[in-house]
Amino acid sequence: MPEAAIQVLDVVKKYGSRVVLDQIRLDVFKGETLVILGGSGSGKSTLLRLMIGNVKPDGGDIVSLGKSIARMNAPELAAYRKNIGVLFQSGALFNSMSVADNVALPLREHTDLPEETIDIMVKIKLELVGLREHAEKMPSELSGGMKKRAGLARAIALDPQILFYDEPSAGLDPVTSAEIDQLIIDLNQKLGVTSVVVTHEMDSAFRIAHRMVLLDRGKFIVSGTPDEMKNSQDALVRQFVYGLTEGPLTARRRGHEYVDDLLGGPG
Amino acid sequence: MNQALNLFRPIRAIIEFLGGLTFLLLDTAVTIPGALLSKRGRRLGWQNLWSQMDRVGVKSVPIVALVLFCIGAILALQMAPILRDYGKIDSVADVISVAIFRELGPLVSAIVLTGFAGASIAAEMGTMVVSEEIEALEAHAINPIRFLVVPRVLATTIMMVCIAIIGDTAGIIGGLSVGQWFLGINHQQYVTHTFDILKLKDFVTGLVKAGVFGALISGQACYLGLSVTGGAQGVGSATTRTVVYTIVALITVDLIFTSAFYFLGL
Ligand SMILES: Nc1ncnc2c1ncn2[C@@H]1O[C@H](COP(=O)(O)OP(=O)(O)O)[C@@H](O)[C@H]1O
Ligand SMILES: [Mg+2]
């Protein structure tokens, strides 16, 4: 049994009376790339926010790098966050700073390194994501793919042990998306980081995943290797993986469950 | 029962708002030393403060000066006929200096700054919420209060005091110009009158108010900006609310301070 980097233990998250995540239980193993799949609104981003400590669970717990996130106090949470990196859906670059300053920010805030050393480290990180020539540009001058690369360079600034990606290929053309996927694979192999990737793009998921997890409306459905997912006999998994127009996901929209979905009823 | 509930809801909303704002300002106050003096904070803290002071203050100076110059001139023209009837046209300088230094200088500067700094801070913070920048700061273990709110609140407070001084001066010059050109008051006489009537406490109470106004403008802008939900539309409505709420808050706080000064004999 490989060692777990993150254990999600029966996590429940509610917004108001609405259950967004219902008793989710899963492990992320050290060094692997785990892809969390699910339709939009299925709770993927919420699960990611729970794992980085931006949102607190209403039930259950998350043990990451050996510590319970729910029980961390502010300094412990800060220490934990220095060991993780997050690439947000939009890149989330600080728009008032150049690309280089964005990448330098975590180093300036959390280390005592002199500026010359930080300069070199920023260049190394930007080289890793292929943006070294664009260091002095402002975020508004970058394309969507470049923004994600820059966000990734910032995420790895402090050499994290775990990297989280929220929809890394959203809004990108297929070629750029494939390039970002390659980058995710490279970082996983070169730096040995554990990666957790949230996505609903199957091509991208199958390129990068060691293991996959499928969520549906806040519930855990299955986990397995890419091959196991492809060969699954479960109708819901098949529909999601193969993008079929007939299946439980579309039937739901026609049947009474659609009404439940709309009204936020049982489910 | 239903009516009681309807009445209760806005009251609850107001209490929540005031509570949230107070909490943010207290949080900001306790974070200031860390943001500017601690080893890590010093690195970017002063630089951030400086760039915010530049952004908040510099552009509003000409507008504040223009507006208060006009207000000084208007006051002089409004006051002149009555004072002339009493044969005390020279007292125009007295009335204007007290009105400007104690009241209009700080208040009008604050209202101009609400439009300049308050609206832009709220829009900026709201945009940062929408583009996940605030979440990204948290994920990097960087406290948004320390990194974003402290420099803005401090910068606005400091600049508000500076701008009020500039505004006060412009208001006096406005009155003086009208006096010189239209009312036949010699400018040297005008200046002498102004300095005779003004006491240190007039100057200080005005500037204390200005500082409080500055903290209020930026505190509210940060609070409403950081509470944005619902995308670009949320940013727009937060900006509008910032301007409206802040003007109401400024007048209310002004009344409270002025009453306090009155009863304390200041
Ligand atoms: N801060 C929030 N307040 C209320 N509801 C939320 C909030 N964040 C997410 N939700 C709801 O939780 C559900 C799951 O959202 P999310 O995790 O973003 O899904 P996904 O990333 O899979 O598209 C959605 O229905 C969304 O409306
Ligand atoms: Mg999402």
Word description of this protein:
- The complex is a heterodimer of chains A (267) and B (266).
- With 267 residues, chain A is an alpha/beta fold.
- Chain A folds into two domains: 222 residues, Rossmann fold (3-Layer(aba) Sandwich); 36 residues, no CATH class.
- Chain A has eleven helices and ten strands.
- Chain A has a six-stranded mixed sheet, with helices on both faces.
- In chain A, helix 3 packs across helix 4, helix 3 packs parallel to helix 5 and helix 4 crosses helix 5.
- Chain A is globular, with a radius of gyration of 19 Å.
- Helices cover 89% and strands 0% of the residues of chain B.
- Chain B is mostly helical.
- Chain B is built from nine helices and no strands.
- The model of chain B has no long low-confidence stretch (mean pLDDT 91).
- In chain B, helix 6 packs across helix 7.
- Chain B has one domain.
- Chains A and B meet through helix 2 and helix 3 of A and helix 2 and helix 5 of B.
- Bound molecules: adenosine-5'-diphosphate and magnesium ion (MG).
